[in-house]
Specification:
Belongs to the MinE family. InterPro entries: MinE (IPR005527), MinE_sf (IPR036707). The chain is α+β, with helices and mostly antiparallel strands. It has a single domain, classed as Cell Cycle, Chain A, CATH 3.30.1070. Strand 1 and strand 2 form a beta hairpin. It is flat.
Length: 87
């Protein structure tokens, strides 16, 4: 964020904020060398639930968050089952 943006009070788009948060979380986990499942996944799942609930009625069991590691690649997988619309 530039100094002008900070002074003028421009707000970032939620997608870019979410992307930055995920990058910070993943960088922290890589540096920490945590073994097994990272400790941030339950918190991430709760935050996703809170945001999605603002727009759609959804059960907590309908959101699955997991991290898969393959060689030097980490994949954060988020599965969200949305209810069918009643049109």
């Amino acid at each position: 964020m530039s100094i002008i943006s900070m002074l003028l009070g421009e707000k970032k788009k939620s997608a870019s904020v979410a992307k930055e948060r995920l990058q910070i979380i993943l960088a922290r986990e890589r540096v920490g060398g945590a073994s097994g499942q990272p400790d941030y996944l339950p918190a991430l799942q709760r935050e996703l639930m809170a945001v999605i609930s603002k727009y759609v009625s959804i059960n907590p069991e309908d959101i699955k968050v997991q991290l898969e590691r393959q060689d030097n690649l980490e994949v954060l997988e988020v599965k969200i089952e949305l209810p069918e619309s009643s049109r």
